């Protein structure tokens, strides 16, 4: 479960003279269990792409489907982690993680058990009764990840989730992301502008063009797993990084 197919997907915001074409003819397939990372210049339509897959925006041409079903709106099969922290400030960490389960009508004891399982997975067991304002940025993002996982989605959608974190916290959360991905066998669609992050995480890196965004290259990362940050010191890593950077620079410089 969780095979994503985008077929000539397009998105135009607004109409007439003010129309902005954000995406044009995006075609890509993300296989079940794949860790797919999208990189591209700022403003090229990465968030728009993810929002369409999340069902938060409608496409204006082409189609997006998961397991053969057209995406028509948000659903429990997909869980989203945004760059900015989206926790409910008045709920404790555990109640935040339980939120989706409460909506589904899952009994309190089972909710608490599931929440504790995922809080333990993200290393926050000791903070289950804390409020979001008592947490660091990294801990808030761990909570957001636990909350998404508690709903057991087929697909995890992550829009530059670590972009606001300091370098060391970012490294920890990248490793955590790889751990949970292994554990949960979900399909992941992850957006970043950090090439090192893309290579560490991805099965495939999809490079987008300048706006209107298209997928201009799919680069397979053939570095064996399990991976950790040490791979960034290897020649394989440098070689892949060079390929991605050159493709991206071509977009940013307009091919000059
Ligand atoms: P990225 O995430 O790659 O930086 P976005 O997907 O946020 O890019 O935006 C792509 C383009 O679409 C930008 O030019 C942006 O201004 C435009 N855009 C995004 N959302 C809207 C909107 N709701 N209305 C109008 N234009 C939008
Ligand atoms: Mg964005």
Q: How is this structure best described in words?
A:
This protein has 7 helices and 10 strands. It is globular, with a radius of gyration of 18 Å. It has 2 domains: 52 residues, no CATH class; 180 residues, Rossmann fold. The chain has a 6-stranded mixed sheet, sandwiched between helices. It has a 4-stranded antiparallel sheet with strand order 2-1-4-5, covered by helices on one side. Strand 7, helix 5 and strand 8 form a beta-alpha-beta unit. The protein has 256 residues and is of the alpha/beta class. Helix 2 packs across helix 3 and helix 4 packs parallel to helix 5. Bound molecules: adenosine-5'-diphosphate and magnesium ion (MG). Adenosine-5'-diphosphate (ADP) binds next to strand 2 and helix 1.
Key words describing this protein structure:
2 domains, 4-stranded antiparallel sheet, 6-stranded mixed sheet, globular, Rossmann fold, 256 residues, binds magnesium ion, 7 helices, alpha/beta, binds adenosine-5'-diphosphate
